[in-house]
Structure formats: C-alpha cells, structure tokens
Amino acid sequence: MNKTTKLAILATAIATLGGAAYAAKSGENDALAINQAKIPIAQAISIAEKQHNGKASQAEFEHTKQGAIYEVEVVAGAKVFDVKVDADKGTILSSAEDLADRREGHEGRDEEHDEKD
User: Taking 60 as the threshold, does the pLDDT of residue 44 lie above it?
Assistant: First the structure.
C-alpha cells in the first residue's frame, strides 16, 4: 500500500471518528453504528480499490434500510466509480461509474443532492 493510500485511509478514519464523536454529543447515534460493522473502513476501501484497480478519493459509512454499507469513491484513470461495500460481509453491493464527477463543475450536482436530503 503506498503512502498516499495510507494517508487517505487515515484521513477517512479520523473523519469517521470525528463524526461519531459529534453524533454522540448531539444525541444522534447513527454514526456510532460503525462499531457494529464486521469489517473496518480500511478493508472496505481496499476492496473497492481492487474492484477498479484505482485509488479511493473518499469513503463513508452509511446505515441504510438494507443494512450497514461503506460508500467508496474510486478514481481509476480518467473515470470515477461509486462503490458500495457491505460492512458485514465485505462484498461489493454495487459499482457504477459516476459520470457527474468526470465533468467540470460537478459541484452543482453535490448542491442538488444536498437539497434533496
């Protein structure tokens, strides 16, 4: 594992733990559900990177109606993929090219997404 990947994993882990601490203080405990995940976020990142022979640019834990998952964004060459990894089994649930991240000015997509939440 190269230095950049290790730093990305460390940054993601710190962000995840910070989110869990914030959730605990605010009375929300969804972020704390990561404690029940059977595989660590670093392993989910590795699984997603191998799927597309790329590098993770971001990752996060989500507790959904279908169960606990990691959402990992992987950059492979000039393509970006959104990969969902089962947090208990370590299997890939879905993987799709994220065409919006390939275009310039994809921030608008993020803003539209935020408005729908």
Answer: yes
